[in-house]
TrEMBL record:
CDD domains reported for this sequence: ASKHA_NBD_Arp8-like
InterPro entries: Actin, ATPase_NBD
Name the UniProt record assigns to this protein: Actin-related protein 8
Family classification: Belongs to the actin family.
Superkingdom assignment: Eukaryota
Spans annotated as Disordered: 1-32
Length: 388
């Protein structure tokens, strides 16, 4: 016997019809936020964004009252260029020189095999030219120092890099070499509070999402495949304190393969301080293939700085432990370094640096190839570089 169909009451039908409209008008679940913290940069964005926002993973707190020398040593003003991880002995210097000479010979032999024309230039010729270069003063600038008129408790990201000298702010780098960095005068809880402040304001400032709306968002935290479990726990505690609707951890290598449309691949993640290598098979990270190399982009920047100094780098006041000079060296590295062995010979470059005192604009002689950061007043320098 066929089942008798119950007829819905008119009132129930009306309530069901109104339900979608109420859902549309009411609060909706926002899309997921991706957080990808690293040693030098924090990558943050919505899941639907084509590319994330890259923010220097730095935070600077205002120091009230006189500075404590011990605390100042802990904060350090961390640069984007790492110091040498081992002491440079005479033996290491000799090995470095021998390695550089071997690379020069190999490149010359390679170009000779390709029959690439070029004129050999004496090293002393362009080094002497660079040493004669002086700065050209200029008053105008596209970039300026961080505005601290509101006396903020702390600043994050790029604002840290452009803090005025003697601003009264101490700079901290919560993650170094892929691990939490806890200065001697600080505790684990204080470093985790730094991360919470940094991540919260990064989302608020760069994604234009107020803290009160975090409860309607999910977050995906991307972490390296080989990472300390205690660090994972602490980072998730930070995310929980930010009060998201839901949170999940995911491995960098697996996300990289899926975003590339691959199920299996060997993933090499060259970070600023650490390089991670891992193989992914059928969407699973293989623990037996994980390798951590304690060098990255910052080591290349440091080597680049040493090489240009061998060429008579005209910016003699450049300091690797300065945030601004670290940005300059990174920008020069990105605009000058290449992998094309056929490009060689003398090249003219021009860049701008911060000037402590205002000056006047002088005539320019060389073609501008790359520019570094400018303050309210800057100096324009030129130098030539000979590709080996």
């Amino acid at each position: 016997m066929p089942r008798k169909t119950e007829k819905k009451a008119p009132q129930a039908e009306q309530e069901q019809d109104e339900l979608p409209a109420q859902n549309e008008a009411g609060p909706t679940q926002r899309e997921a936020i991706i957080l990808h913290p690293g040693s030098s940069y924090l990558y943050v964005g919505f899941a639907s964004d084509s590319a994330p926002q890259a923010i220097p993973h730095l935070i600077a707190y205002h120091q009230s009252g006189p500075r404590d020398p011990q605390q100042t040593n802990d904060a350090e003003n961390p640069s984007l260029v790492l110091e040498y991880k081992t002491e440079i002995t005479d033996e290491l210097k000799s090995q470095r020189e021998e390695g550089l000479e071997a690379v020069r010979r190999a490149l010359k032999d390679y170009r000779r095999s390709l029959d690439v024309a070029g004129r050999d230039v004496d090293t002393a010729e362009y080094t002497e030219f660079n040493q004669r270069q002086g700065p050209a003063e200029r008053e105008s600038s596209e970039l300026s120092l961080t505005d601290l008129s509101g006396n903020p408790t702390f600043v994050i990201g790029s604002e840290v890099l452009y803090l005025p000298p003697d601003s009264g702010y101490q700079v901290y780098k919560p993650i170094r070499n892929g691990r939490l960095h806890i200065p001697p005068s600080h505790s684990l809880s204080s470093v985790l509070s730094m991360l919470e402040d940094l991540w919260t304001h990064a989302i608020e400032d760069y994604l234009d999402l107020p803290r009160k709306e975090f409860k309607s968002c999910q977050v995906v935290l991307l972490v390296p495949d080989a990472i300390d479990r205690q660090l994972l726990k602490e980072m998730m505690n930070v995310v929980f304190r930010m009060e998201f609707a839901a949170a999940i951890l995911h491995q960098e290598s697996v996300c990289a393969t899926y975003s590339a449309g691959l199920s299996s691949a060997c993933v090499v993640d060259v970070g600023d301080e650490v390089t991670h290598i891992c193989c992914v098979e059928d969407g699973m990270s293989n623990p037996n293939t994980r390798v951590i190399l304690n060098y990255g982009g910052s080591d290349i920047t440091r080597l680049f700085y040493w090489l240009v100094n061998q060429s008579g780098f005209p910016y003699r006041e450049c300091r690797r432990d300065s945030c601004l000079d670290g940005v300059l060296l990174q920008q020069l590295k990105e605009s000058i370094c290449h992998m094309d062995a056929t490009q060689h010979g003398v090249h003219d470059y021009q860049f701008s640096v911060m000037s402590k005192t205002p000056g006047k604009i002088a005539g320019l002689r060389h073609k501008a190839v790359g520019r570094g950061p400018l303050g309210s007043h800057g100096r324009l320098l030129s130098f030539v570089l000979l590709s080996p």
